[in-house]
């Protein structure tokens, strides 16, 4: 592992995995650019539970494990926070925010793809360390595509993007069931 190359961490959301549409496409797009390491984080053993409140609560544990992994990369491979870009969809966005807030290094960037709303924005009793927010990294960009329903509508990043006003249904995603099947490819078609 070249310790100077950028390092992208990618993860999925509720009822999804790294093998469902979205994560493999993004991983392959980054790898085609060359000179980048990509790590996909599969927490589908937890995320596959239909009991959403439990899965939402478990984001703290998943994020803590990623933070420990980041600390290990720093210790053993001299990976710095400047190299790290964490990317997560739905509950995975909060997983990445939690990981960044718990690692010993200061993470450079987090991209939140439609951070989950239920139990994080409404109703919420969580403090900022238990969900994604603008303080988790040097730069936090958020793409809102299902705001007010399954995703945050309020701004929580350094920069927040609202394609088509940030609300559902988005073009190509008229069937709400597609949101639960990892269908966020249309969001990922932009040049990052």
From TrEMBL:
Alphabetical list of InterPro entries matching this protein: AB_hydrolase_fold, Lipase, TAG_lipase
Gene Ontology CC terms, in alphabetical order: extracellular space
One MF annotation (Gene Ontology) recorded for this entry: lipase activity
UniProt-annotated location(s): Secreted
Domain Lipase, chain residue ranges per copy: 4-177
Keywords: Secreted
Keyword Kinase in record: no
Biological processes annotated in GO: lipid catabolic process
Predominant place of localization: secreted
Domain of life: Eukaryota
Keyword Amino-acid biosynthesis applies: no
Family note: Belongs to the AB hydrolase superfamily. Lipase family.
PANTHER family the UniProt entry points to: LIPASE (PTHR11610), LIPASE MEMBER H-A-LIKE PROTEIN (PTHR11610:SF178)
The protein, known as: Lipase domain-containing protein
């Amino acid at each position: 592992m070249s310790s100077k190359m950028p390092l992208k961490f990618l993860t999925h959301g509720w009822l999804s995995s790294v093998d469902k549409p979205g994560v493999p496409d993004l991983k392959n797009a980054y790898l085609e650019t060359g000179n980048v390491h990509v790590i996909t984080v599969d927490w589908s053993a937890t995320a596959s539970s239909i009991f959403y409140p439990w899965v939402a609560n478990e984001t703290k544990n998943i994020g803590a494990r990623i933070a420990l992994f980041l600390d290990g990369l720093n210790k053993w491979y001299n990976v710095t926070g400047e190299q790290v870009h964490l990317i997560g969809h739905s509950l995975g966005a909060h997983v990445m925010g939690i990981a960044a807030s718990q690692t010993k290094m200061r993470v450079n960037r987090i991209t939140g793809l439609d951070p989950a709303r239920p139990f994080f924005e409404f109703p919420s009793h969580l403090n900022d360390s238990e969900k994604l927010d603008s303080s988790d990294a040097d730069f936090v960009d958020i793409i809102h595509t299902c705001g007010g329903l399954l995703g945050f509508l309020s701004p929580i990043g350094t920069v927040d993007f609202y394609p088509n006003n940030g609300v559902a249904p988005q073009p190509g995603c008229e069937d709400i069931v597609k949101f639960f099947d990892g269908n966020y490819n249309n969001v990922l078609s932009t040049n990052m």
